[in-house]
Each structure stands twice: as C-alpha cells, then as structure tokens.
Amino acid sequence: MTQKASLRTPRARVGFLGSAKSGTHHAWMMRLTAFALLPLTIAFVLVVLSLVGRDFQSARILLGSPLAGILLLLFVGVGAYHMTLGMQVIIEDYVHSERTKHLALMANICFGLLIGAALVYSVLRLSFT
Amino acid sequence: MADPSPIPLEQRRPLSPHLEIYKWSPTMAASIAHRATGVALYFGTLLLVYYLVAAADDVHSFNFASAIFGSFLGQLVLFGYTFVLLLHVMGGLRHAIWDAGKGFDPEARDKLAIGSFAAAAILTVLLWIVSFILR
C-alpha cells in the first residue's frame, strides 16, 4: 500500500468528519477568552459605575476617553467571540437535525459578528467624534 | 406510559437516564445556571448594543435610552443582568479551579457551587449599593 494507512473511513473523509488537526482549538479559545474576560469584566463594571448619573455630554467624555475606549473595545471584541464559542457548544449539544444545526451555527456566527461590529463601531465613533 | 419499544427489556442496550431522573445537587444547579446565564448574556448583549449605539448617535437617542434604563422596569432588568453576569463570572472561576484539577472532592465541589451563587448575590447587592451612592 503506497498510501499511509488511515483508520478513517472514506465516508468520514468526504463528510469532513474526524480530525481536522484542530481538536483543542475551541476549548483553548474558550478558556483563553474566559481568562481575558475576568479583568475586562471588572473594567466594564467600573466603566458602567462611572456612567451612573452622567448626562449626554459627560457620558460622551467618559466613553470617548482612551482608557475607557480601549477597555471597552477589548471587552466587546473578546466578549463577542466568547459568547459565539459558547452558543456553538449549546447548538451542537441540543440541535441534532443536520440542516437545522448548520443553519443555527451560521446564524450564531452572524449574530456574534453583528453584535461585535455594532459595539466596536459605537465605541470607535464615541472615541473619534 | 406504554412501552414503545418492541425489543424485550432485558435485550436492550443500556441508556443513560434522562436529566429529570437525577436528584438535584448544588453542582447540577450551578452547571445549569452557568449555561442558562451564558444564553441570557448572549441575548442580553443587545442591551449594551442599544445603549452604546444610542450614546454614539445623538443626545435625543441617548436621553431616550437613559430614560428606559433609568425606569423601574429598566433598573429591574439591569439588576437581573448584574446578577446574571456575576454568576457567569463565578461559574468561570469555578471551572478554572476545576481545570486546575482542584476542588473535586464532594465537600469542595458543593462549596464551590453554593459559593458561586452566594458570591454573585452579595456582589450584585454591593455593586447596586455603590451605584445608589454614586447617583
């Protein structure tokens, strides 16, 4: 046999099933983003507390400051990725019909991107106007 | 309930019992709460989107959003959001401890589960006391 013996069946190969050499990527990203979100969530809570009682002008000054802007960008970017990864697991756990599952997985990524884009856009606009 | 399977009981493959069979335990409640709070935060992010887009828009949008979040119902939702966020953070910490291979004995894992609910509740109340002092 010239080809290297594989335990994977041809059916699995054409169905893109089995090892994609990325087995731990999801779990690793979940933990990495979770750890990053710990200080970022504390920063987010502090920003929200600082917003209490502010009117439009002073809220804009706070949200447009470099420190709040950078922390919010990191929080919403990492947060959107983390929540998309988390919802992916939930879909894979509960949705068993192939068609519905793939539609749900696509919708999940679109939702994560939409949320991420809207939040990043808002923070950047607050910083640069 | 009528038995739907034509195969005699003793010849069937074993099945894992369904969720409702198990007696409730603190770790089970914490696990379900972690997933439920994750889903709630997933959709709750829309509240943050609304607030930040309104702040980035103009003074009218901002004042309208502020009025909504400042109303009784708005404050109630934000209070719930605070607890849900903190409970999910505590769940993350619990998982980090378990990932490190610690806290698995029966006493420790129950303490971690109950402790995460307690810590989230206490921190939520403390944060809201601070927010009332600030306004």
In short:
Chain A is 78% helix and 0% strand.
Largest interface: A-B, 32 and 28 residues
Overall pLDDT metric of chain A: 91
In CATH, the architecture of chain B is Up-down Bundle
CATH superfamily of chain A: Fumarate reductase/succinate dehydrogenase, transmembrane subunit
Strand residue percentage of chain A: under 5%
Helix/sheet category of chain B: mainly alpha
Ends distance of chain B: 59 Å
Number of helices of chain A: 5
What is the total number of structural domains of chain A? 1
The level-1 CATH class of chain B: Mainly Alpha
CATH class (first level) name of chain A: Mainly Alpha
Morphology call of chain B: elongated
Distance between the termini of chain A: 67 Å
Layout of helices and strands, plus pairs?
The complex is a heterodimer of chains A (129) and B (135).
Chain A: H1 10-14, H2 25-51, H3 56-63, H4 66-94, H5 98-128
Helix pairs in contact in A: 2-4, 4-5
Chain B: H1 26-57, H2 59-70, H3 72-99, H4 106-134
Describe what you observe in this structure.
The complex is a heterodimer of chains A (129) and B (135). The mean pLDDT of chain A is 91. Chain A has one domain (25-128): Up-down Bundle (3 helical TM bundles of succinate and fumarate reductases). Chain A is an all-alpha fold. Chain A has 5 helices and no strands. Chain A is 78% helix and 0% strand. In chain A, helix 2 (25-51) packs across helix 4 (66-94) and helix 4 packs antiparallel against helix 5 (98-128). Chain B has a single domain, classed as Fumarate reductase/succinate dehydrogenase, transmembrane subunit (3 helical TM bundles of succinate and fumarate reductases, Up-down Bundle). The relative contact order of chain B is 0.11. The radius of gyration of chain B is 22 Å and the shape is elongated. With 135 residues, chain B is mainly alpha-helical. Classes of the chains: A mainly alpha (129), B mainly alpha (135). The interface between A and B is medium-sized, with 32 and 28 residues.
